[in-house]
Q: What sequence folds into this?
């Protein structure tokens, strides 16, 4: 007996279809996903912080003049995460928000260096995220995996520390699947991180650096050739280099596209100018993601609606985007088959209404 996945009361519009669609998210940041309620609760615990305690004031606080301003605000929220309990609460609540959007699987990018350097014990940090991951899977049915990323602007000290935390068998968490590189790209050349990515890949982790978000296509080429990237975070500037687009398409290297993020950080001027259409036209495997949803005033559901508008998709087209994310994920074959099957069943039931 096939389970009824579609809410018969749901209106017959694309927004309702997206709301109920089983999804996977591959590019979403741990601290960047802290909801206004969580951020204001943490800010209230730390009165010395410049982060507003009022969720309303937070909306203005999360309005950025440029990428550097975004990073400053991001780090002010990182400063609120001071105890293992803060880490556990944040992680569990992020999982709850994902589950509410029918996210069955998410690869959450965590920057452990930023927390351990602020005094959180590394063992306690790992226990906190693993506790939350197991609780989320048991209570929400949402499977979480971790990406540990290097905050590139913090340099090779951060690279060494992140690699140690990701590869030391006494520390690396069971849920860790990938290794990334985040933060500003300008002046943070990708090739210098090759030795660290080599160690992470040798330890069985998948390489997923940000690239081409605020710099040109060469950063994406560098991520592919020096860091052996299996997916690219954003890759927005790839649209400027037809050879790069052809390479990404030919080798089926997915892009983790985050449309609203690119507007909020001023990496792209307007949504109508976003290169997602060029990516699809070139045959690139496009996945849709929210990056830092509360900071960008968006949700994963909204990112699917934005992509559907820009790509002129119907339900079947949106379902394909969801299946792209499952295909591009590092979830095991059984898990990928399960979620893809759910997407197909849900879509068939929806269209049969
Ligand atoms: N769209 C994004 N594009 C890029 N990154 C993004 C995006 N969203 C979120 N991030 C995260 O922002 C952090 C940036 C942290 C950073 O730059 C930094 C610099 C100097 C010192 C320290 C420190 O901790 O001491 C940190 C990264 O951890 C990254 O995961
Ligand atoms: Zn990101």
A:
């Amino acid at each position: 007996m096939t389970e009824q996945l579609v809410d018969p009361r749901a209106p017959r519009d694309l927004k309702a279809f997206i709301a109920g669609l089983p999804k996977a998210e591959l590019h979403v940041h741990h601290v960047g996903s802290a909801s206004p309620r969580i951020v204001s609760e943490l800010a209230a615990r730390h009165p010395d912080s410049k982060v507003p305690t009022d969720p309303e004031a937070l909306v203005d606080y999360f309005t950025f003049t440029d990428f550097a301003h975004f990073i400053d605000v991001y780090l002010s929220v990182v400063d609120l995460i001071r105890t293992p309990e803060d880490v556990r609460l944040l992680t569990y609540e992020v999982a709850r928000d994902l589950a509410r959007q029918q996210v069955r699987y998410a690869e959450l990018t965590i920057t452990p260096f930023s927390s351990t350097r602020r005094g959180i014990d590394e063992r306690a940090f790992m226990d906190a995220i693993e506790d939350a991951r197991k609780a989320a899977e048991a209570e929400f049915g949402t499977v979480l995996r971790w990406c540990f990323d290097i905050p590139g602007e913090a340099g090779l000290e951060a690279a060494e520390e992140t690699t140690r935390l990701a590869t030391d068998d006494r520390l690396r968490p069971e849920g860790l699947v990938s290794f990334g590189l985040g933060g500003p790209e300008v002046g943070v050349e990708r090739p210098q991180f090759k030795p660290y990515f080599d160690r992470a890949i040798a330890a069985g982790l998948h390489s997923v650096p940000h690239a081409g978000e605020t710099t040109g296509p060469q950063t994406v080429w560098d991520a592919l050739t020096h860091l052996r990237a299996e997916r690219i975070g954003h890759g927005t500037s790839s649209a400027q280099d037809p050879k790069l687009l052809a390479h990404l398409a030919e080798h089926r290297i997915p892009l983790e596209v985050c449309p609203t993020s690119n507007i909020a950080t001023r990496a792209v001027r307007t949504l109508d100018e976003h290169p997602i259409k060029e990516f699809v036209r070139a045959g690139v495997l496009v996945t849709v993601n929210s990056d830092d949803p509360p900071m960008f005033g968006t949700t994963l559901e909204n990112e699917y609606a934005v992509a559907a508008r820009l790509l002129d998709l119907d339900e079947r087209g949106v379902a394909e985007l969801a299946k792209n994310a499952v295909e591009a994920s590092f979830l095991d074959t059984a898990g990928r088959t399960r979620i893809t099957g759910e997407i197909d069943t849900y879509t068939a039931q929806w269209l049969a209404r």
User: Anything to note?
Assistant: The first strand starts at residue 23 and ends at 29.
